[in-house]
């Protein structure tokens, strides 16, 4: 699960930075819930399923405000730093595979403050 969360975190950093504005910041628990269906895929233990794309789209739609996006970004970076076993290439390709256009490079080095 560590590797998957690392990959998912990287992918979601990019997604979080693009979403449109809302009010309360999204917590790490919500981020994990949205991305949990992606773990088998990014860890090489399963195929990319519809539940994963639904989760990515849901997270993307939920991260509306700048604080939301920053919260998701920081959560994903934290998860990525603490987990191993994730295929970074698979994680980085998730948004495109799920039909979400993210104009940012998906990377653990992303600056969540900008």
UniProtKB/TrEMBL annotation:
Residues making up the signal peptide according to the UniProt record: 1-24
MF GO annotations: lipid binding
Top-level taxon of the source organism: Eukaryota
CDD domains recorded: nsLTP1 (cd01960)
Domain Bifunctional inhibitor/plant lipid transfer protein/seed storage helical: 28-112
Keyword set, alphabetical order: Lipid-binding, Signal, Transport
Biological role stated in the UniProt entry: Plant non-specific lipid-transfer proteins transfer phospholipids as well as galactolipids across membranes. May play a role in wax or cutin deposition in the cell walls of expanding epidermal cells and certain secretory tissues.
Family designation: Belongs to the plant LTP family.
Name of the molecule in the record: Non-specific lipid-transfer protein
Lineage: Eukaryota, Viridiplantae, Streptophyta, Embryophyta, Tracheophyta
């Amino acid at each position: 699960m560590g590797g998957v969360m690392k990959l998912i975190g990287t992918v979601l950093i990019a997604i979080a930075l693009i979403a449109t504005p809302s009010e309360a910041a999204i917590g790490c628990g919500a981020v994990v819930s949205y991305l949990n269906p992606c773990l088998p895929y990014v860890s090489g233990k399963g195929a990319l399923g519809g539940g994963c794309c639904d989760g990515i789209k849901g997270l993307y739609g939920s991260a509306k405000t700048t604080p939301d996006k920053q919260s998701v970004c920081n959560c994903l970076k934290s998860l990525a730093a603490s987990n191993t076993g994730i295929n970074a290439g698979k994680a980085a390709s998730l948004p495109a595979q799920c039909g979400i256009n993210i104009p940012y490079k998906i990377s653990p080095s992303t600056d969540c403050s900008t």
